[in-house]
# Entry
Amino acid sequence: MCVLINPSVRATVIAGLLHPYDFTDRIKDDEQEEPSIWEFPDTSILFRRYLDGGRMLNVYDWFASFQQELELQKKNLRSQVAAEARSMPSSPKKRGRTGKAKAAEEKVDSEADLERWHLELQARFMRAMQDLDYLGFLKHTGRKADHVQRTSFDMHDN
# Structure
């Protein structure tokens, strides 16, 4: 009875980070399986990578694993958009530029987009890391500037 009236804050925060969609109004079917990690919010993705690490976390390695998940997220979202576009009825095609001109223009745009994407990745990582720091899951060390220390252990995925 006491647990229902005065629940553990630590367990609630960890449950919210591990299963963020359990705390929303999203309708969950019994047949619906657990979403993939790339479908989670950034802080939840980073927290799951936090659990995979040891006592000390190298921030660059942590960023690299976070970047892999977001690249997968970007790829999957693009494929979903492409599938939706293919299912829409198409309009008559207009004559436009040649294929070489389009490819050259797309290449220039893709380099600028790639730079913006890397900046967005870094900003999203920093925001998620700041959230975990604010929640007390990280401790900055004076010994190694590129490492942070975990402050919470023995978390079980229920």
Notes: The longest helix spans residues 99-134. The radius of gyration is 21 Å.
